[in-house]
Amino acid sequence: MTRTQYTNHLLNILAFDAIIQHLSIACRYWLHREIVTNSKNVIDEAIVSTASSHIMQLSETIINNNWQRPELRYNSDRELEYLDGLFWKKFNPKDHV
User: Residue 38 belongs to what domain range?
Assistant: First the structure.
């Protein structure tokens, strides 16, 4: 796994956690630190540290379900929307977990 692939996977974990808020502050800090560590020389092999069980569970969920981060934005009424093909629809977290 290259550093870019690993970093994208970590970003998916953070995005998934932002929707359901499952991880502790310490776990989020670890994820951010891993992203910074692997942000240089992106074609090199990833530098992977040992993750906590919570992070590993989310990682397995993301991989097993082929979960991708939704494209999000706020509309003029400050409501969160996601891009569904060509149209923006109201974001419901339950639809993306």
Answer: 3-68
